[in-house]
Amino acid sequence: MTAAPQRVKRSTKITAKTGKSIAQTAAGGGKIVYANRELSWLAFNRRVLEQAQNEANPLLERTKFLAIVSSNLDEFFEIRIAGLQQQKDSHGGESSMDGLSPSEQLKCAFAEIKQLVKEQYRCWHELLVPALTKEKITFKTAAQLTAAERTWVQDYFTKRVQPVLTPLAIDQSHPFPQIANKTLNVIVSLENPDTPGAEMFTAILPVPRILPRLVQVNPEKSGGQIFIFLSDIIKFCAGSLFPGYRINQACAFRVTRNSDLYIDDEEAENLLKRIEEELRNLRRGAAVRLEIESDIPEPMFALLCEQLQLSPEFVFKLDGPLNLVRMMSLSDLVDRPDLKYPAFTPVELPNVRVATSIFAAMQERDILLHHPYESFTPVVDFVQQAARDPGVLAIKQTLYRTSGDSPIIGALIEASRNGKQVTALIELKARFDEANNIKWAKELAEAGVHVVFGLVGHKTHCKCSMIVRQEADGLRRYAHLGTGNYNPKTARLYTDLSLLTCNPEITADVALLFNSLTGFARSPDFKHLLVAPFNLHSRIQELIATEAANATAGKPARIIAKMNKLVDKVTIDNLYAASQAGVQIDLVVRATCCLLPGVKGLSDNIRIRNIVGRYLEHARIFYFQNDTAPLLYCGSSDWMTRNFFRRVEALFPVYAPDLRDRIISDILPVELRDNEDARELQPNATYLPPVRKEGEDSFSAQKFFMAAAQKRAAEQIEVVS
After folding, report:
1. What ranges in 369-458 are assigned the alpha helix state H?
2. What's the CA gap between 441 and 275, in Å, rounded?
3. Residues with Cβ < 8 Å from 364, sequence gap 6 or more?
4. Which of 256, 390, 241, 408 lies closest to 318 in space, CA to CA?
5. CB within 10 Å: which end of the chain, N or C, has fewer?
6. 707 lies in some domain
7. How far apart are CA 537 and CA 542, in angstroms?
């Protein structure tokens, strides 16, 4: 592991030509306004819920969106709510950008979450369950089963469930058990039938993760499909686990715990070992949420709250299945293509695939891939062919997240065994992928790969790969630079951009980036890449300032930026100043956005939208008009303080004229044209559908890109043939 860069200087806010500070010029001398980060993220999750509520979406896809809402809330509690609670407990903590204390943020967040969860379960009960029932996809509780179905369920429990359950009594000799994070549990109230009411007993049934939470009843039976949740099966059959006792009440519950890692890189002598230890500790992290069925008796409820040390605001009594994340599997269990999105296979571009090698194709031209509309295969080919190409001498690769059966990992191992020098920069602290990345780090190291963990105190989040190849005229570098992870599975679900290039100017910077990560570099001089924590933040501020200066001078000035999150205060203030100078600014921000557009005197010239659709919008694209010489960057970084200063990020320029034109003319305008999946952020931090002009048709950017990719592939086939 290398030392942290020294004295990384944070950029300062720009000011207008008048010399006034932003605070003086904003909103006619009024206060600068920001959206709250936590509430902005919850507004995004509400947008996801809208997709579950939207009857225009295929029914089984709507159940997936409902599951995503729950998955997002899980992470929100594990990280954001847990963090706010810690700040509150440590002498109040710092105020947010919008001036709220941690206590105030928790209060506001919980009010919004309670309403969001209420609407989520209303969507389940009133919209999805009736619609599924009409399609003969029925969900039943134990009480709703027929006699034959009860027999099947009891047999299923006896053969498949009971053998792996371990009842845990709670009494003087059996302390309250450790409840693992986000696991299903059933708390049971028992009594002796010989002395009813004399004494009550309590036990807990932890449910192993290996058991499916959604069970199809009698799947061999023809006709419609009947499903029951595993928690209902266990509650119905739990009596067999307590011979001689009678069950009075059984309730399912689930605990969410603080899941943030607390590791000081500089103090950790062995980072890999320390993270392994910390992952084990996460199972015992402080509880931050209790989800429990609404009919739980008061004594059982009080026991859980006392043992988990949770106050009432952290408890959610739910009328329905506790973990709607499990609805994600329904689409796989139901073979109904008519209830899913039409199948789409990412297209293979013939002018890439027909080349004798990916390197030959890259020598002809830079290659731009728009995922998932265009296949991720060339990126995999890039590493796999390098592993087998006798001319390749070295491979350098960053890995933040990848799939469980990653062909990239396999190719790196193969390359090392083929005698090539292989270096992998693995981010051990990629949230929720820590265990996977530890596994990959060990396997790669055992195969002879040089495994390193980047800069101390910084997550390595950049997406880049470099090949050094011996050719007739000497050594040549080839690089892949992307906006998304090296994960072929998510590349079919996330919208991202990939650039494959052997441009010597760009690849020289990529080589410098890798050398900075594996060796020592206090202040590397990147000529073309914008790299955090070195020059990215300062350069972005300079580019925004240039647009503001151009607008003030009466020159054309425009900023178009697409990202996942916009949170950095300095950047937001500079965008406000640019708006006041007359710069036209269009932002596509998928999730959290702390900038408020359309505020009179502050952000009149800023428009912000997000797009929530079939695919997760993940690409980061940044366009600056720069008078007559537009600048275009893509890469891994959002505009967040953590990305600018606590991560290693890389934005890369797109120089090839045809690729620049494609992004500027064919990708960004399409995103701004969407009126179907897009919503526009309002000055009050709410989202509304774009206002359509009279006679304007519905338009989805994602549907357009699917059709455009197929058309582009067909046109290339004609040229090749």
Report:
1. 377-388, 407-417, 434-446
2. 12
3. 355
4. 256
5. C
6. no
7. 9
Q: How far apart are CA 713 and CA 439, in angstroms?
A: 38
Site of tokens 């009596």: 239
* Structure tokens belonging to residue 664: 């500027």
> Half-sphere exposure of residue 691, counting CA atoms within 13 Å on the CB side?
3
Closest CA to 645 of 541, 537, 543, 573: 537
pLDDT in tens, 536-578: 999 999 999 999 999 999 999 999 999 999 999 999 999 999 9
Asked if residue 420 lies in contact with residue 387, where contact means CB atoms within 8 angstroms, the answer is: yes
Give the tokens for residue 545: 């300032």
Q: Are residues 535 and 677 in the same domain?
A: yes
The answer to whether the CB of 91 falls within 8 A of the CB of 290 is no
Catalytic residue among 461, 480, 537, 618: 461
Contact 182, 82 (CB under 8 A): no
307 located within any domain: yes
In this structure, the dihedral spanned by the alpha carbons of residues 15, 20, 24 and 27, taken in order and rounded to 10 degrees, is -60
Tally Cβ neighbours within 10 Å of residue 714: 11
* Chain segment 221-230, per-residue pLDDT in tens: 888 999 999 9
Round to whole Å and give the CA distance between 70 and 315: 15
Specify whether 91 is catalytic.
no
pTM tops 0.85, yes or no: yes
Q: What is the pLDDT of residue 29?
A: 47
Q: For residue 167, give the nearest of 143, 135, 190 by alpha carbon.
A: 190
Cα(139)–Cα(226) distance, integer angstroms: 6
Q: Which domain holds residue 86?
A: 35-135
- 611 plus 625 within the same structural domain: yes
Domain end call among 332, 363, 391: 332
Helix extents (H) in 418-479:
434-446
Predicted confidence band of residue 523 (pLDDT cuts 50, 70, 90): confident
